[in-house]
Design brief:
CATH architecture of the largest domain in chain B: 3-Layer(aba) Sandwich
CATH class of the largest domain in chain B: Alpha Beta
Largest interface: A-B, 65 and 58 residues
Order of helices and strands of chain A: HHHHHHEHHHHHEHHH
Oligomer: heterodimer
Low-confidence stretches of chain B: 30-35
Order of helices and strands of chain B: HEEEHEHEHEHEHEHEHEHEHEHEEHH
Helix content of chain B: 40-55%
Number of domains of chain A: 1
CATH topology of the largest domain in chain B: Rossmann fold
CATH superfamily of the largest domain in chain B: Response regulator
Helix content of chain A: over 70%
Radius of gyration of chain B: 23 Å
Largest sheet of chain A: 2 strands, antiparallel
Shape of chain A: globular
Number of domains of chain B: 2
Low-confidence stretches of chain A: none
Structural class of chain B: alpha/beta
CATH class of chain A: Mainly Alpha
CATH topology of chain A: ABC transporter involved in vitamin B12 uptake, BtuC
Number of strands of chain B: 14
Distance between the termini of chain A: 27 Å
Strand content of chain B: 15-25%
Number of helices of chain A: 14
């Protein structure tokens, strides 16, 4: 256990240092940054991106990418909200929504494995299809008003909602699967070289499909947090920031678009870094336009470090 | 080891660059809020119903959340806020979502703002519901809220979520396109003909209401036929493509009402490409500088102007009234004025409003 801890520190040294440094800089830059209220906010805001990023780590590990998760987030949220409106018992509605999310993931995976299409293109197409479906199903307007007990579970008593705990639970489960199970090794093996993995007896198509299903399911779970946070299901949820962060954060955390790596904790820290930067710049009153430059700069730096590491 | 050193060096450098960049940015923002001799003690500049606006008893701090800062409209709004703040000698801090579709980022940023102890908030939500949670928090924290310009937090949501909205200061979006339809009806005369509407991104109040305004008003004219509402997503290129398709499928099309000037100009390009220039009436909304010069050049026929700068200015006046304890009895719902601008009246209108809108000054 101690050994594993030491190894984690070793692996994530760079991102942890970045996170600490950012926090030190912002604490000096703004009196409002290091307050209990703001720290809670940062954690609360990270929850959705953590869950999406965890799903993305599975996909990235196989050398794939899933651009459709933002649309899946919106669509499954609308599905759940419509079921709420039809007076379906809410946990059952959530289960159905998760199944829909998995269905979207399966469709992605099926086109990718069965027809050998590029994940980028398949999921880009799905991004558009599922967004359209979300707009149709919601008639273009948000659906407001969620069941009280649903809000209690996914949002919980305000200040620090339950979202971050759910997100960390998801991340812990995912880390266990990746570190401790054969499945975790298989997905990395596929990313390392699909043919070699196949020759070794790994059922590569089935495993590849499964990671898109996981990404779809987790996008649905994140939509529950989204809905609980807004008390509404929005057809334009997850249009940009969410899915871009879900790709950027794992990369910042040391994962690679080339596959073969699956660093869950790295992705989680990656999300925290992005959240801290956003919050810190807000606290300093830095304009939105400058914030985008700052966030882009961090992503570039992360990729740069990634490429340095690869040279080793 | 060496590699690690490089890694850390890169990280530190990047942090320093970001920190320096942010400081410069913050500095740039501060310097723009120069204070002159405060206004106050005079009748409201743009809303006579507010009566006399008192001289602020202290330098109130007001947090502003705009929808975005990526087009002229929201920049005019920003100028309105900043001018009012400078005139009355109070402080405003202006935030926005990265784009007009980033609903979650707007909510998160507003939650961040709640940690900064503002005396009052002016917010322009992207949708009717995306800011409910942070606004409920604001009410709980005792921060007064003005719902300025755009989506409304309606009565039902206010009660359900425990949000106190002090005042709604906005535009009647339905009236925007109603004006367009009235203009089209006048231009086409008794002959009438087929019309379409190119709407903005579905889901937002503004897009949906402009669509409704078009549909309701056109139903009033038996000689105008609505042959459809199409989605242009507020985008010039998309509107152009949509319009090109419709011109193919409806060769008798007589008028295009677009939900903003940007899309109207896209539609104009399609009409021009189809060789039907001058044959189809094209109207926009917003009276953006580009839209206005397009009307001047005889491309667009008309645009609906409403006065976002004034709305922002009024919001600050309302805020001061409230913070000075003089808001009782003042109007809580304010719809700003709007006008149809076409070649017939454009020149005098531009002269009238040039002072407030940087975009209009740049026209000449």
């Amino acid at each position: 256990m101690g050994n594993m801890f030491a190894r984690s520190i070793q692996r994530y040294r760079g991102v942890i240092a970045t996170l600490v440094l950012i926090n030190i800089i912002f604490s000096f830059a703004s009196e409002y940054y290091m307050t209990m209220y703001n720290i809670m906010n940062i954690l609360d805001h990270s929850a959705i991106s953590i869950i999406l990023s965890v799903g993305m780590v599975f996909v990235l590990a196989t050398g794939g990418i899933d651009l459709s998760i933002g649309s899946t987030l919106a669509f499954t949220g609308i599905v759940a909200a419509q079921l709420f409106k039809m007076q379906v018992f809410w946990p059952a509605a959530l289960v159905l929504a998760v199944l829909v999310g998995m269905g979207i993931g399966f469709t992605n995976g099926w086109f990718i494995t069965h027809y050998r299409l590029q994940p980028f293109i398949v999921t880009l197409a799905m991004l558009s299809i599922v967004r359209g479906a979300a707009l149709i199903l919601s008639k273009g307007s948000p659906i407001v008003g969620m069941p009280e007990s649903f809000l209690q579970v996914f949002s919980g008593p305000r200040i620090l909602g339950n979202g971050i705990f759910i997100a960390l639970l998801v991340a812990a489960g995912a880390a266990f699967i990746i570190e401790k199970t054969a499945y975790g090794r298989y997905i990395r093996a596929i990313g390392g070289g699909e043919e070699a993995a196949y020759v070794c007896g790994i059922r590569t198509n089935r495993i590849t499909r499964s990671v898109y299903i996981i990404a779809g399911a987790l996008a649905t779970v994140s939509s529950f947090l989204f809905m609980a946070g807004m008390n509404a299901a929005e057809p334009i949820a997850g249009l940009t920031t969410e899915w871009m962060e879900a790709i950027a954060a794992p990369i910042i955390g040391g994962n690679s678009l080339d596959g073969g790596r699956a660093y869950i904790l790295g992705a989680v820290i990656g999300v925290l870094i992005l959240s801290c930067i956003r919050s810190g710049l807000n606290m300093m009153g830095v304009g939105q336009h400058y914030q985008q430059i700052a966030i882009g700069a961090v992503i570039i730096c992360a990729v740069l470090i990634d490429s340095l590491r690869k040279d080793k | 080891m060496n590699l690690n050193r490089v890694r850390i060096l890169v990280l530190v450098t990047c942090m320093v660059v970001i920190a320096a960049g942010s400081l410069i940015a913050a500095g740039a923002q501060e310097s723009s809020a120069a204070v002159e001799s405060p206004r106050g003690g005079q009748v409201s500049r743009y809303n006579p119903d507010y009566g006399v606006i008192p001289v602020p008893s202290k330098k109130w701090r007001i947090g502003i959340m705009e929808k975005s800062l990526i087009n002229d409209f929201w920049l005019d709004v920003k100028n309105g806020y900043e001018q009012a703040a400078a005139d009355y000698g109070i402080e405003v801090e202006i935030f926005a979502a990265p784009t007009e579709s980033d609903i979650r980022a707007q909510a998160n940023t507003l939650e961040d703002m709640l940690g900064k102890n503002y005396d009052l908030l002016c917010v322009s939500p992207i949708t009717d519901s995306n800011l409910l949670t942070p606004l409920a928090k604001a009410t709980k924290m005792g921060i007064p809220i003005i719902n300025a310009i755009d989506a409304h937090i309606d009565e039902e949501n206010q009660q359900k979520h425990g949000i106190d909205i002090l005042s709604l200061i906005t535009v009647d979006f339905k009236e925007n396109t109603r004006m367009s339809v009235r203009y089209i009806a006048e231009e086409l005369g008794s002959e009438g003909g087929e019309c379409i509407h190119i709407m903005g991104l579905p889901g937002g109040r503004c897009a949906e209401e402009r669509k409704l305004g078009y549909e309701e008003e056109i139903a009033q004219y038996p000689n105008l036929t609505n042959v459809g509402v199409y989605n242009g997503e507020w985008d010039r290129k998309k509107a152009m493509d949509v319009a090109a398709d419709i011109l193919q499928s409806h060769p008798n099309l007589k008028a295009i009402s677009a939900a903003n000037d940007n899309m109207a100009m896209g539609a104009y390009q399609a009409v021009k490409n189809a060789g039907r220039e001058g044959d189809v009436v094209i109207t926009g909304v917003d009276a953006t500088p580009d839209g206005i010069s397009s009307v001047m050049n005889g491309e667009l026929d008309a645009t609906t102007a409403f006065f976002q700068y004034q709305l922002a200015y009024m919001s600050i006046e309302a805020a001061i009234l409230y913070l000075e304890g003089q808001f009782d009895g003042k109007p809580t719902v304010v719809f700003g004025p709007q006008e149809n601008w076409s070649a017939a009246n454009l020149e005098s209108k531009v002269a009238d409003y040039k002072e407030m809108y940087a975009g209009l000054q740049a026209l000449e």
